[in-house]
């Protein structure tokens, strides 16, 4: 049997929120294609995952070409460099001018130096230079102003008008050609040029490939784009659309306009956005817009599944007494502001999104669906499958559909009174209108029906077609974002007693689980407290390490209602106690992006809550910089210092105002939160124990394992480590981006571990190394450790003294081996979990 033909679905977004491309990929996989979804947003590197049978690749985006294209178009000598802003050039000129004129004053008025006869000619010469520089500066300022006026004007060259399109092609193009697809499905205008260029290059090499363009919008009709971008998009559509082997559109209106504008050989196939009918009613728990708004069944409720252009609907509420409006949006600031001005804010509810497969169920508890924006046409099918009659504003395609099938009312454009009248009429006729939403109509408006036409188009244009479909594949599949994969996750040890309704303390721990510490805490607490059972939750993104947990939560789904409801049902009524770490919310983003928003619900449920801090979420940059010469905040990535400061200030305020028990995992954090209790890091000392002897090699093996270089001062110490390695004194092992299991074996087999030089305390890797009997070198603030009552056997050094410290260890192997024995004893005494379980004893008794 030959391999299945390869379909590459490309889109210039992060994939997660784009239900159309996800449904497209799954439908193609069911039709027998080998499908890869290629999107953007790889968190600085290429990230791969799986969504059922669909391979997903996210690529890190760059702005290299865009940055280059922002250089001066004219007068480069006057503008010098595109890196120089008008403000920086003005400041540099003013600084030079002050110094030059001060020098002139010195030459003219005397002072130490050459005679007056010499000074006066120098003064005149310098004055001439100042005058010429002033003329040049005025010309440069005029050039800058001219450049700024031209910046927003279209040039007719799409590469210059929208250079980000070139960056997209530079990132996506090589990967497309590497994957060698038989068929490319280019989603939206931002991908049309990349598909065309890659297909042409592949064909030039003798490879057979077809491609189609999926038009999500009518480009000339989108008014929200800047003029230059709109011109660029129109230009690339005009230039490349006729090279496509087929064109697809999301509505009959767009299909007709494209066919007319570009004289296409064939009218685009209409593939409407529609829900997967097979998944409707399968959501468990079933989400509800009415329950989310906390409204009884007898309150009239309108819902708009797209939070754009709602001005007319909000204004209409002033004439619709007792009617409420639910707006599904990520940000409802503008809607709520208008509602406040019109004094109807108490009847406007901004609610979160639901997963695509659960949208009809979510909407079904409302009374009417609203379509007010051209960008809302896709929601028509969702409303119909939710059995909701529809009220449509001035949106031609759904308006015509609603009139033809009599499934709602159509209102005049931008007329709140007319919109209110349409709503009243639809509410009065609701039962009659809903009866017109028939089974044949729903079958036609389902994704199963729409996808059948799309996959048939694939077969017609592709150089080869699938031999057999795969109807056994489910229509829905969650994305496996775990680095370890499902099989490896199943093998991760869970050595705590699982949550048991009969236990006195049912302890939840979540949701950061940095370095697996919540899992280690759960194990230690359950071991030393017989009446405790536990459940560990962990947030993950594609590319993060996987540590033991009971529940894994996708970071990208924290804003989805199903995730939020599932978390509430998991926690409320099941837990008696909760250790919330890193100040992260436990109900997704339902109540904001910190634990503070979730505390009222947790208190009402009678759950005892403790807050646990690990490090960067609480460590204050200004204080740390003041105390530590080599603070990690000297090397913080550009643009993140302000965020770290804001987070530390916010989290300290939450900690101090909450009145909750507070715990920290490292002693240095007691400087930031003096009222907290130190709960030492926990490792499985038996699992880390090693019988590999220390310092018996002619060339000792020295390991350094940074998770992020800037947090450990890696770039400050690498010159010393490389120097010792190059001269043969040590064998340097730099462990970056390796798995948990790999790092454990590397630690057990090395002689010395070089830890951090930027924090002032030691972290999980240092504890694991000590448990393995390895001597650890790092920077310690001995003051905070003395205050905590411990004296770690870590060789204390700074970046300046690291070389001497290592050479001292190399010169005396027996002393170094002894430090290894002391380290193992310290780890067993302080970090085997007994002290940590005792630290939480009072909290667990409450």
Question: In summary, what is this structure?
Answer:
The protein has 846 residues and is of the alpha/beta class. It contains 36 helices and 27 strands.
Overall description:
- There is one protein chain.
- This protein has 846 residues and is an alpha/beta fold.
- It folds into 5 domains: 6-63 and 163-270, Glycogen Phosphorylase B (Rossmann fold, 3-Layer(aba) Sandwich), CATH 3.40.50; 71-155, no CATH class; 279-438, 3-Layer(aba) Sandwich (Rossmann fold), CATH 3.40.50.2000; 485-678, Rossmann fold; 685-830, Rossmann fold (3-Layer(aba) Sandwich), CATH 3.40.50.2000.
- The chain has 36 helices and 27 strands.
- The strands form 4 sheets. The protein has a 9-stranded mixed sheet with strand order 8-7-6-5-1-2-4-3-15, with helices on both faces.
- α7 packs across α8.
- Residues 70-83 and 482-491 have low confidence and may be disordered.
